[in-house]
Amino acid sequence: MNELLIFDLDNTLLAGDSDRNWGIFLSEQQIVDSSYLDESERFYNNYYEGSLDIDGFLSFCLRPLVANDMSVLLGLPRSIH
Asked: Which of 71, 3, 80, 79 is nearest to 31 (CA)?
């Protein structure tokens, strides 16, 4: 029998919201500019208002990964203190 385990990362396994933390990390690493954080906040608010455009959100989240060379992404720090 196969089992599926699902974890809620936000405010349980991770301190804070993982999407927000990811955006802050990308900004600190200069992978995105500050407008990314503004757009992230809009998606966050849309989620809690029940009006999230999931396709737009996924496109937004993947943009930094698509826009950067793999060597840049692999060079990012692997742990945050």
From this structure: 71
